[in-house]
UniProtKB/TrEMBL annotation:
Taxonomy, superkingdom: Bacteria
Protein name: Uncharacterized protein
Bilayer-crossing regions: 100-126
Assigned keywords, A-Z: Membrane, Transmembrane, Transmembrane helix
Species of the source: Fuscovulum ytuae
Length: 127
């Protein structure tokens, strides 16, 4: 395996480790799966960089396609993704709660908003 392929695989493993550490995503067998699960915690440019990084990792595993990887683009993508993942504090990202709980809190917020609006309009003498 060429040295460039080893470096690419090491960087991909580093990103997988950061996904697990910072976002709490169990990457499982592939970086692609981890990035899919963490996509809502990353901005668009980091998601795009992650997709390109995962594709380069797949090429590095095959080792024959390593010629197709642009080293400068790969390093830029790695830095973008690394910067965004390191900015996330460990434990800050919580797994989503049950969807029923989100629905109930959304309805409660809407009802409270309508009540506050009604009280404000009544106080102003508009209703």
């Amino acid at each position: 395996m060429p040295a460039v392929a080893v470096i690419i695989l090491q960087k991909a493993e580093r990103i997988s480790a950061l996904l697990e550490e910072r976002v709490g995503v169990k990457a499982g067998t592939s970086l692609e799966a981890g990035l899919r699960h963490a996509s809502r915690h990353l901005p668009y440019d980091a998601r795009a960089a992650g997709r390109r990084l995962a594709a380069a990792g797949q090429l590095a595993r095959r080792s024959a396609g390593i010629v197709d990887v642009d080293a400068h683009r790969f390093d830029d993508d790695y830095r973008v993704l690394l910067r965004h993942l390191q900015a996330i504090e460990p434990g800050r990202v919580r797994p989503p709660g049950p969807s029923v709980w989100r629905f109930v809190t959304g309805v409660a917020t809407a009802v409270a908003s309508v009540v506050v609006l009604g009280v404000g309009l009544a106080y102003a003498g508009l209703i």
